[in-house]
Design goal:
The chain is mostly beta strands and about 625 residues long. The protein folds into three domains: about 40-300, Methylamine Dehydrogenase, Chain H (7 Propeller), CATH 2.130.10.30; about 305-565, 7 Propeller (Methylamine Dehydrogenase, Chain H), CATH 2.130.10; about 565-620, no CATH class. The chain has one helix and 47 strands. The strands form 15 sheets. It has a four-stranded antiparallel sheet, with no helix packed on it. β22 (about 275-280) and β23 form a beta hairpin. The radius of gyration is 27 Å and the shape is elongated.
Length: about 625
């Protein structure tokens, strides 16, 4: 489900013959859409931020809402028109937006009615989203709740009046009264709805998982309820706070100097820690700066930072990118690789991942949740040239043209049909496997419910293959795509979302990728064509649809790598006339070309413009 992993020129080192070679690949930034939307541009124009579960929301100056992170319940798909919003709130898997006219828009997970705003949907002035329910504060000071009421979190105590703020936790609610007192209701196993005395002088409230926070007028914070991971232990000095936020097991406090203090089950914070004016706590934390940018951190933050220098991507259970320097970046940050160096290809399965190194060995990680041995690479772990991941099985292509398969075997997906030779490409689907031979023969084995093994006739012009949940794509040298495995019309259920229906014109493609039930094709003009299932927006390529250099798809997720149009990278380059006495070098020993020492791009049969090289050199030498 991964495509176009490649090497990238990382420096033009002076050698005895003044040459250096590398497999070339344009690099750029990763763009993700579908089940997980990240990263997106959070650099300017925001006036509010909200997070809670694995997604975040930002309100822009123009009244529109932007979302990032998890989108499995469509919690990032703001219903049109995406305008006139003045406030926002993020629940565990649903979202709320308050319009300027006092109405509330709700979207995402609708289980239990959490997105069904009661009538009349008018006169709201504030909103809060909890674990599986929602709250709205009316202009008359009353609170309205909807969604799950299993723990009484919707049962506002009488009198339901004179509220000035509300906050929704996992299963308990808080309301701040005009007189500065706090009222709590809902699940109260550990005292989370019972504020300590004196219950006065509060100016802000925050409901977390099993704890609650209240900000006093003197700038101190009071915490109560469950303190299982230190989430109510406010660090000293407990003073000068101006805002608070709480999530399942940790808390945030914003100081008057613009710095953020965090406590509980939290190990990191923003860097640099200054200039913030609003905070939001969740599985990912976020903060709004005075200049209108949003900074995120934590396990489900907004993709890789910095977002540049990527040459390939993979996605399925998580998302990852391969950098030009051979390092791998994973998001959400569920694991780290040590040592993280020397990778030339990556692949991602449901719970496991693979990385191919320059030495031809495979590094495997993950797989603990459902261990079928998919991370135990068979010996000898050497001479591999390509990799692919299925649900719980793995494939490795050897330099001798044979395929090694390991992991889950229940449908024969790891039993390579004989003769196991002459393969040039491999692809692992959910429960099946595919191999392309040098003579254009395609071989498929494993689960065949949807016609996965009914391969097309041999064609020596096939150059690549990919596999989705059940469907498969083959790319031809003429830029066209051949598909199969989208179900039999006479077999139920026929899971056909159009993932095999390549949009016309079926030409000009240079790369292919397959998710569970959707497909991607990269065109030679740098645009992406996407087709198939679209319940989570996985085929809605973000604008501008241009300058893409690589693609990846998995599950209900899509990723594109968009190049920086200012940079140029070369497939094979050499210096000419580079041995004059006194020739300038950079600190790494690379020749600095001038009018006599020129860089020649063999792949394009032309010299590299000195200005282009200067920019390239600066980018490669920069931070």
């Amino acid at each position: 489900m991964l495509r176009r992993a490649a090497w990238h020129i990382a420096g033009l080192l002076l050698s005895g013959v003044c040459t250096h070679s590398a497999l070339g690949q344009l690099s750029g930034s990763v763009i993700g859409w579908g089940e997980h939307v990240a990263p997106i541009d959070l650099s300017q124009g925001f006036v509010a931020v909200a997070t809670r579960g694995s997604h975040g929301l930002g309100l822009k100056k123009d009244g529109s809402i932007v979302g990032w992170g998890a989108n499995g319940a469509r919690q990032l798909q703001v219903p049109p028109p995406n305008t006139t919003f003045v406030a926002l709130a993020a629940g565990s898997s649903h979202s709320l937006g308050l319009r300027a006219d006092g109405s509330i828009v709700a979207w995402g997970d609708s289980t239990g009615g959490r997105t069904t705003v009661p009538s009349p949907n008018t006169d709201f002035v504030s909103i809060a989203a909890g674990g599986d329910y929602s709250l709205g504060l009316k202009g008359d000071g009353s609170v309205v709740g909807w969604g799950s009421n299993f723990r009484g979190q919707l049962d506002v105590p009488a009198p339901n009046a004179e509220f000035v703020a509300v906050s929704a936790g996992s299963s308990h609610s808080l309301g701040l009264k005009q007189d500065g007192s706090v009222v709590g209701w809902g699940f109260n196993f550990d005292g989370r709805t019972t504020p300590p005395s004196p219950n006065t002088d509060f100016i802000a409230i925050a409901a977390g998982g099993s704890h609650s926070l209240g900000l006093k007028a003197d700038g101190s914070i009071v915490g109560w309820g469950g303190n299982y991971q230190g989430e109510t232990d406010v660090p000293a000095p407990n003073a000068d706070f101006v805002a608070i936020s709480a999530t399942s097991a940790h808390s945030l406090g914003l100081k008057s100097d613009g710095s953020i203090v965090s406590w509980g089950n939290v190990t990191e914070g923003p860097t640099p820690n200054t200039g913030f004016i609003a905070i939001a706590a969740g599985f990912q934390d976020a903060a709004l700066t005075a200049d209108g940018s949003i900074v995120t951190w934590g396990a489900s933050s907004n993709g890789p930072v910095p977002n540049r220098g990527f040459v390939a991507a993979a996605t399925n259970g998580s998302s990852m990118g391969l950098k030009a320097d051979g390092t791998v970046v994973i998001w959400p940050a569920s694991s780290t690789l040590q040592p993280n160096t020397g990778f030339v290809a990556i692949a991602d399965g449901l719970w496991h991942s693979l990385g191919l190194t320059t030495a031809g060995s495979i590094v495997a990680w993950g797989g603990d949740y459902d261990d079928w041995g998919q991370t135990r690479v068979p010996l000898p772990n050497s001479d591999f040239t390509a990799i692919s991941c299925g649900e719980h099985h793995s494939l490795g292509l050897k330099s001798d043209g044979s395929i090694v398969a390991w992991g889950k075997y229940t449908y024969g997906q790891t039993t390579v049909p004989p003769p196991n030779s002459d393969f040039v490409a491999v692809a692992a689907g959910w429960l099946h496997s595919v191999g392309l031979k040098s003579d254009g023969t395609i071989v498929a084995w494993g689960y065949d419910y949807d016609g996965q093994t009914d391969v097309p006739l041999p064609d020596p012009t096939y150059v690549d293959i990919v596999a989705g949940y059940g469907h498969n794509l083959a790319l031809k040298a003429d830029g066209s795509i051949v598909t199969w495995g989208c179900g039999y019309p006479f077999v139920e259920p026929n899971i056909d979302y159009g993932q095999c229906d390549v949009p016309e014109p079926n030409s000009g493609f240079t790369a292919i990728a397959a998710g569970w039930y959707h497909s991607l094709g990269l065109k030679s003009d740098g645009s992406i064509v996407a087709w198939g299932k679209n319940d989570l927006g996985q085929i809605n390529v973000p604008a501008p649809n241009s300058n893409f250099v690589a693609i990846a798809a998995g599950a209900d997720q899509s990723i594109g790598i968009r190049s920086d149009p200012r940079t140029r990278f070369v497939d094979f380059a050499r210096f000419q006339n580079c041995f004059a006495p006194g020739r300038a070098h950079d600190q790494g020993g690379s020749v600095l070309p001038d009018a006599t020492c020129r860089l020649f791009d063999v792949s394009r049969d032309s010299f590299i413009d000195l200005a282009d090289y200067a920019l390239l050199h600066a980018l490669l030498s920069g931070p």
